[in-house]
Amino acid sequence: MAIATTAGKVYAVGDVEARFTIQSVSKAFAFCLALEVAGPKVVASRVGVEPSGDPFNAIVFDPQTNRPFNPMVNAGAIAVAGILQEYLGDGAYDFMLERFSAAANRSLSLNDEVFRSEHETGHRNRAIGHLLLASDAIAVPPDAALDLYFRQCSIDVSAFDLAWMGATFANMGTHPVSRKSAFEIAAVRSTLAVMFTCGMYDYAGH
């Protein structure tokens, strides 16, 4: 376990340097980047900000808007990846990795083995991608959005890295030690609100 503070202190115990893939923790950071790159109006037109009450991988859209409920469930996160791919093109993953690395204050990298596994077995997410295209929630080919989504989930981190990334968010987008800006403050504020209300999936209501 690792805890980092906005004052730049870190408290750690155990295997805090052990590497694992970031998976769904990436959703909050990717959403923040989409707000920054495309603006809140575009993002709001593609994905909602309401708690869903459904599991993270549910193939269910908001019946009122025909959009994913929020960016913390898979459908919303894939829509967010579609936005980043649309606005940044082939540079989307490098842009994302650079910002994630700035938040961790370390050069992060892709776990290629996990990425290939996700790409080969992510049939449910692939189905979600095609439904997003059918409902105009993404404006790029589903495979392009999914490739970015699988890559963002396959970035290797440690508990130590995530502690610093969390502290960077808590410090309104600036790393507490390096003082480098990883995320824009307005986007961070909006993301923190969505994390608080939607970030526990079907447990959010509880």
Number of contiguous helices: 9
Percentage of β-strand residues? 5-15%
Q: Which structural class fits the helix and strand makeup?
A: mainly alpha
Strand order within the widest beta sheet:
3-5-4
What is the molecular shape? globular
The total strand number stands at 5
Q: Whole-number radius of gyration?
A: 16 Å
User: Average pLDDT, to the nearest integer?
Assistant: 96
Task: Please summarize the sheet with the most strands.
Answer: 3 strands, antiparallel
Pattern of helices and strands: EEEHHHHEHHHEHH
Low-confidence stretches: none
Separation, N- and C-terminal Cα atoms: 25 Å
Approximate helicity band? 40-55%
Which secondary structure elements does this structure contain, and how are they paired or packed?
Blueprint: E1 2-4, E2 10-12, E3 20-21, H1 26-38, H2 40-46, H3 74-88, H4 92-104, E4 109-110, H5 112-121, H6 123-134, H7 142-153, E5 155-157, H8 159-170, H9 185-198
Antiparallel strand pairs: 1-2, 3-5, 4-5
Helix pairs in contact: 1-2, 1-3, 1-9, 3-6, 3-7, 4-8, 6-7
Question: Overview of this structure, please?
Answer:
This protein has 206 residues and is mostly helical. It has nine helices and five strands. The chain has helices spanning 26-38, 40-46, 74-88, 92-104, 112-121, 123-134, 142-153, 159-170, 185-198, and strands at residues 2-4, 10-12, 20-21, 109-110, 155-157. It has a three-stranded antiparallel sheet with strand order 3-5-4. Helix 1 (26-38) packs across helix 9 and helix 6 (123-134) packs across helix 7.
